Amino acid sequence: MDNILIDTDVILDFFFDRLPFSESATQIISLCESKRINGFVTPVICNNSYYLLRQTAQHNKVIEKLRQLITFMDILVMDKDVVLQALSSGFKDFEDALQNFAAIKSGNIDVIVTRNTKDYIKSKIGVMTPENYVKSIAACR
User: N or C: which end of the chain has fewer CB within 10 A?
Assistant: First the structure.
């Protein structure tokens, strides 16, 4: 069973139903919920999702959506080592560097799923778009 880090853009595509991206995002979230894959997020992804969702919904509703999401997803650890690696990494996007090194530190992430694959060009972990990830899962059945 795959262990995937789901980037903020995919989570937001799901919550905001941003077509056409929400179709793949919804399939990925459903695969996590049904335990066919293990989904992971980071504290930064939770924070960014909260911040952006809060602009269109009340605090209590946003908190409840995030609480529901993490009932079937795990949260990776971010600590000083992750931050230091991200700062020294040469990634152009610091946030993506944080996600990448949290995934590496966990030792069990198979792929990072994001629409911003170019931001992870320096990653040592596989990176796929949501659409390609869903296609790869379908091909394995």
Answer: C
Distance CA 17, CA 26 (A): 9
Query: How many domains would you assign to the chain?
Result: 1
User: The whole model's pTM is what?
Assistant: 0.94
Which residue segment(s) compose the domain that 59 sits in? Answer: 3-140
CB 86 within 8 A of CB 98: yes
Query: Can you give the CATH number for the domain in which 52 is found?
Result: 3.40.50.1010
Reported as a single tens digit per residue, the pLDDT across 46-74 is 999 999 999 999 999 999 999 999 999 99
Question: CA 119 → CA 45, 94, 98, 100, 123, distances in Å?
Answer: 15, 10, 12, 10, 9
> CA-to-CA distance for 45 and 96, rounded, in angstroms?
10
**SS3 assignment, position 121:** coil
Helix (H) / strand (E) element for 132: namely: helix 130-140
Cis geometry, peptide bond prior to residue 130 (ω within 30 degrees of 0):
no
